[in-house]
Amino acid sequence: ASYQIGGAIAFHQYGFDDQVPNEITVYNDKISRRRTMGGLRFTFIKVPPKRLGGSNKMKLPDGGEVRMASLPRALMDAVYDWDRYNTLPRAYLWITARKDERETIKELVRITLRHGNIGTMRRIGYILAKCKVSPRLLGKLKARVSAGKSLVKLDPTRPARGDINREWGIIDNEQS
Fold first, then answer.
1. What's the pLDDT tens digit per position in 99-111?
2. DSSP state of 16
3. Where are the alpha helices (DSSP H) in the chain?
């Protein structure tokens, strides 16, 4: 099976969260289930093959290798799978903290275009626009989301009250 490790373990690996996760999330294209192996708890999440990507090989202490979500992929996953990991609005702070890392942001946009959905593209595009990221880079995201008429809440857990940004199709409800 094709796979990559992501979620809370990736957030911890990149220093987004200092809580040590007690479960390893494995995105893959074959199975969905929870298993305990070697004293470790795993959650296997079956996703379409096109949702896999944006990972790096990571060396293990025993000499083995695993595929771990890259930093930009972990950022995208924090927005895409916000309900699984309870990462919004913290994910926006994680993205904002890296706004000056041009290569990271460029890769975040590329991964979001390839593996994200429209809601994720709108949310990440809006946050990057607020960070004053290069309009040329944002143009790729904007071209993919501009056709929609519906609005997406910036924080899906809060009421749909706040400023409306028609450029990104976002209801900025973080302060409401």
1. 999 999 999 999 9
2. S
3. 8-13, 71-80, 82-85, 90-97, 102-115, 118-130, 135-145
